[in-house]
Amino acid sequence: MLSARGLEAQVVRIVEDLAERTEEAKSSEEVVRYLKFCSAFREYSLYNTLLIWRQKPEATQVAGFGAWKKLGRQVKKGEKGIAILAPVFRRQEDEESEEQRLRGFRRVYVFDVSQTEGKDLPDAPIATDGNCHDNLPLALMRVADDHQITIEVEPQVGSYGVSLGGQIKIRLGLSASDFFATLAHELAHEMLHQNSAGKSLSKKEKEIEAETVAHVVCSYFQIPTAAPAYLALHGATSDEILIRLANLTSVIRTLIEGVETHLADPEIQQVI
Ligand SMILES: [Zn+2]
User: Fold this and answer.
1) Other CB atoms within 10 A of residue 122 CB
2) Contact by Cβ (8 Å): 188, 254
3) What distance in Å separates the CA atoms of residue 187 and residue 110, rounded to the nearest whole number?
4) Measured in angstroms, how far is the CA atom of residue 3 from the centroid of ligand 1?
5) pLDDT at site 42
6) What's the pTM?
7) Of 35, 66, 76, 145, which has the fewest beta carbons less than 10 angstroms from its beta carbon?
């Protein structure tokens, strides 16, 4: 096992490299293309999210008729739209003013991706690329177990994984390396963001922390990740990544040492 100082120096090198590659990824073709795709989906208000959920709980990507058309997809015949409320604005009486005043809401209809057909949608460029032996995911699952965190693998998980506080859900059918990277990411959320200090961080700060932890743990076990693209999609800057490192060293150490300990389990050795 590495000495504390040896590991720390290695972690700093990995994170500095990640910060640099995230900046580069921002102008990469795959990230630019995916961000353009994402801009077709607007962010819905909490109330509209609730309306969508009540009418179609399994909805994952929702957009209007015209937005789907622009993406090369058509709403299938006979599909019923999901009703949401769109704000209606009125120009101020005084013509000089550009300001608009909210006049009310009108009902508009949106459709989930499952109600449409046509051109394939691009996947987020966040899959890991490379192989990892099945014993690595198994060892990381044992680490979750050591911390009383249960793992469920399900077909209907919107993203690769989700951290629910004491429970992690991971999408069924991921490759071993994607499973390992996702589990490391969600474990970081569990260990860093389920307490009151962690909960007060912004969404972006949480994602930077979780993905940096996952990237360091993966790199340590020689799994190449798509962390630069993932962080670029979240608009993270090099400085924003480096500044969070001090928060992360203890969780990184817990995960790496935990995996190494379990890799040495005779039970896991037998699986190899
Ligand atoms: Zn996350």
Assistant:
1) 13
2) no
3) 35
4) 29
5) 77
6) 0.78
7) 66
Q: Tell how far the Cα of 107 is from the centroid of ligand 1, in angstroms.
A: 33
- d(CA 28, CA 22) in angstroms, rounded, equals 10
Per-residue pLDDT of 123-158, as tens digits, reads 778 888 777 888 999 999 999 999 999 999 998 776
Residues near ligand 1 ion, CB 5 Å cutoff: 207, 210
185 CA → ligand 1 middle, Å: 6
What single DSSP character describes residue 98?
-
User: How would you classify residue 81: left for phi > 0, otherwise alpha for psi between -120 and 50, otherwise beta?
Assistant: beta
Q: How far, in Å, from the CA of 68 to the mean position of ligand 1? A: 27
Per residue in 234-252, pLDDT (tens digit) is 999 999 999 999 999 999 9
- Regions of the chain where pLDDT drops below 70: 1-2, 91-99, 158, 270-272
65 alpha carbon to ligand 1 midpoint, in Å?
Answer: 30
